[in-house]
């Protein structure tokens, strides 16, 4: 339960920051990463293989961020790495899927409400959708899981 509250706070802080400034400070990611490692060492909520898999999902996103010239932000990828420490492989995949669906819906609604010629390219902050996705994942896990 403690790690759920911590992760909720992490997503809340970074979502607010991402929405307001479209940037996320690395110190927040580092602090929650260290806390995640301590939780894994002390509580062992997931197997080592699941934790490594969860972190590797973030590594793949980080490489994708580099290859696509940050179409996915590097900070978002680092947050997914840290989330893998807390959630393990399967939960981080489900979280990314739910968050991506929310982002697609949000982006579609945004495109429907703006003048496309005046905006050109726009950056959609991902962390608010990750926060919403995490709330759905917590609900799913509390009601019986996947």
Automatic annotation (TrEMBL):
The Prepilin type IV endopeptidase peptidase domain, residue ranges: 7-105
Q: In the record, what terms sit under GO molecular function?
A: aspartic-type endopeptidase activity
> What transmembrane ranges does the database entry give?
26-43, 49-67, 79-112, 124-140
Instruction: Spell out the protein name for this chain.
Output: Prepilin type IV endopeptidase peptidase domain-containing protein
UniProt xrefs under Gene3D superfamilies: 1.20.120.1220
Would the keyword Isomerase be found if you checked this record's keyword annotation? no
The record's annotation in InterPro entries points to: Prepilin_IV_endopep_pep
Residue ranges of coiled coil: none
Q: Cross-referenced Pfam families, in alphabetical order?
A: Peptidase_A24
* Keywords annotated in UniProt: Membrane, Transmembrane, Transmembrane helix
One GO CC annotation: membrane
């Amino acid at each position: 339960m403690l790690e759920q509250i911590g992760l909720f706070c992490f997503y809340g802080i970074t979502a607010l920051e991402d929405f307001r400034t479209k940037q996320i400070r690395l110190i927040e990611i580092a602090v929650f990463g260290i806390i995640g490692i301590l939780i894994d060492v002390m509580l062992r909520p997931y197997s080592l293989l699941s934790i490594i898999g969860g972190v590797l999902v973030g590594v793949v996103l980080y490489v994708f961020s580099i290859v696509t010239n940050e179409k996915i932000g590097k900070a978002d990828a680092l947050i997914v790495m840290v989330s893998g420490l807390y959630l393990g492989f399967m939960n981080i995949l489900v979280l990314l899927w739910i968050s991506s669906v929310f982002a697609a819906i949000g982006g579609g609604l945004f495109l429907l409400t703006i003048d496309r010629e005046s905006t050109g390219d726009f950056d959609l902050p991902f962390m608010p959708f990750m926060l919403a996705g995490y709330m759905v994942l917590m609900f799913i896990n509390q009601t019986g899981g996947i």
